[in-house]
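can u do me a favor
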């Protein structure tokens, strides 16, 4: 799967530079003192259902914890050296007393991060301490998104613009009083956490792109795609659908469904004859 970005907010739990300076110095070139750093805690992600009807499984959270250890904090998911402003020095999964939307115990991946307490970072430190800069987002990659009903992989059906599995369970629909959720499983890598200008959500939002759609298209416009003919062909119907009006999209989906129904009836008739 592509890179995932999931939004959460800074944790209200305090981080202690004096107590944690030993952990922090594992990541610094020169030995730092508590006065030279500013520490804060944050909730990175959890196992609750997000606005895209997806969620990290408990196993995924356990796998992500060591992957995020030592990763940097940046601004607006912009990967450049001057945007690196913090680093995670402790990451752990916390079992809470609350329940998530599925009625399961809520588990939260929490991290402690530090940044240099200097003049350059002072505006950021003041914004964090004052509650102005509190929305954060993580960037990571998982192997698959599976159906919570049957465990099969979910994929996009471009004809209806829905995510469904081979058993026709559609993400976001309810089956036998159970919500079909996309389970984000088998994390491959963790990239960063980022301060973002996005309002905090109940649960976190997940978007699937390189960084933003603009970044993806900028890369495509300059990339050498001569060896990727099959992948380009697979993208053509997605681009075509994006250019359609809603009414045309619905009409084409209806025609395709009718064609499939006719072909199945014709095939059954041929077998009988």
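np, heres the sequence
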């Amino acid at each position: 799967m592509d890179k995932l970005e999931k939004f959460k907010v800074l944790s209200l739990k305090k981080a202690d530079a004096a107590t944690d300076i030993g952990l922090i110095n594992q990541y610094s070139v020169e030995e730092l003192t508590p006065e030279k750093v500013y520490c804060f805690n944050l909730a990175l992600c959890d196992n609750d259902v997000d606005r895209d009807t997806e969620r990290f499984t408990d196993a995924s959270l356990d796998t992500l914890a060591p992957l995020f250890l030592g990763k940097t904090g940046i601004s607006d998911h912009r990967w450049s050296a001057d945007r690196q402003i913090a680093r995670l020095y402790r990451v752990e999964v916390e079992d809470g007393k609350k329940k998530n939307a599925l009625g399961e115990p809520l588990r939260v991946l929490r991290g402690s991060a530090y940044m240099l307490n200097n003049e350059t970072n002072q505006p950021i430190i003041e914004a964090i301490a004052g509650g102005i800069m509190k929305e954060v987002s993580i960037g990571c990659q998982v192997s698959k998104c599976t159906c919570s009903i049957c465990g099969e992989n979910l994929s996009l059906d471009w004809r209806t613009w829905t995510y469904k599995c081979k058993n026709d369970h559609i993400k976001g629909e309810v089956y036998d009083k159970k919500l079909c959720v996309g389970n984000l499983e088998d994390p491959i890598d963790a990239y960063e956490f980022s301060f973002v200008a996005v309002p905090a959500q109940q649960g976190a939002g997940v978007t699937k792109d390189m960084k933003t759609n603009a970044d993806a298209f900028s890369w495509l416009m300059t990339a050498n795609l001569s060896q990727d003919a099959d992948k380009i062909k697979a993208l053509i119907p997605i681009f075509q659908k994006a250019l359609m009006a809603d009414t045309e999209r619905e009409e084409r989906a209806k025609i395709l469904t009718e064609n499939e129904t006719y072909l199945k009836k014709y095939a059954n008739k041929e077998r009988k004859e």
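Helices lie at 17-24, 58-68, 122-129, 213-222, 229-243, 246-272. hope that helps!!
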